[in-house]
Amino acid sequence: MAAALEITGLTRRFGGLTALDGIDLTVEPGESLGLIGPNGSGKTSVFNLLTGHLAADAGSIRLSGREIAGLPSARIVRLGVARTFQNLRVLKRLTVYENLRAARHAAAPALESLWQSRAARRAERDAVMALLALFGLEDRAHDTSDSLTLMELRELEIARVMAADPALVLLDEPAAGMTAAETDRIGETIATHLLPGRSAIVIEHKIRFLTALCPRLAVLNAGRKIADGPSSAVLDDAAVRDSYFGSGSC
Ligand SMILES: Nc1ncnc2c1ncn2[C@@H]1O[C@H](COP(=O)(O)OP(=O)(O)OP(=O)(O)O)[C@@H](O)[C@H]1O
């Protein structure tokens, strides 16, 4: 079986800066990989290349065996890649319901047909409302998203990804800015609802949160991968501790 994701030799330069320098990374079907590294090490650039928001200077990105490097981002979404952002990107002027509907249609544009039958519209409404009910957001369905709390917005982002039903999920700091209790809650939501049956890469500085979700970690430093393996072994690695944690502990 092909890997869910196989990145080889991925390279991206910005002027004289090499942000990613020949990265190799594989994610197996159903696997969740944690991606860590100091600020500026290239983590978000990996996501931007994977989603087609940035073009690679060299290298290959294969999704279930199919090359996606160079494809437009809308096409990559339709091939089953969905992402959350460090700074939330839900469409704040749309209602909660409309956000999920837009995510479904971006992943499967055929749904957007003017000829959608009444039965299809009802099925869609039921699917979206069932998703909102999972997050306790059904009462907020017709509120605009700018009225939500940070916790509700993060849950809406997770629901938005689930509405697209992707094979590969990219989570960029899903617990950023959250209290310890909120971090626990969003971690449980991701583990229970989002990750089962999907492959994932999770970027997160909160290491305990990350290792609870991801049995494997890859570490970037200055655009290079310096470690990749079982989380506990990677966190014990001397080079990782030097580059990421300084001499401190996690
Ligand atoms: N669009 C861009 N134009 C110029 N330089 C960029 C661009 N995007 C990223 N960089 C640079 O590339 C390097 C890697 O950045 P990137 O955002 O991928 O790192 P990161 O590991 O995600 O950092 P952080 O943890 O701070 O989000 C940094 O030096 C950054 O300044």
TrEMBL record:
Question: What name does this protein carry?
Answer: Branched-chain amino acid transport system ATP-binding protein
**What keywords are assigned to this protein?**
ATP-binding, Nucleotide-binding, Transport
Reading the lineage from the top rank, the first entry is: Bacteria
* Gene Ontology cellular component annotations, sorted alphabetically: plasma membrane
Give the source lineage, highest ranks first. Bacteria, Pseudomonadati, Pseudomonadota, Alphaproteobacteria, Rhodobacterales
Q: Which CDD domains does the UniProt entry name for this protein?
A: ABC_Mj1267_LivG_branched (cd03219)
What SMART domains does the annotation carry?
Answer: AAA (SM00382)
Q: Entry's InterPro entries?
A: AAA+_ATPase, ABC_AA/LPS_Transport, ABC_transporter-like_ATP-bd, P-loop_NTPase
Domain (ABC transporter) ranges = 5-247
GO molecular function per UniProt:
ATP binding; ATP hydrolysis activity
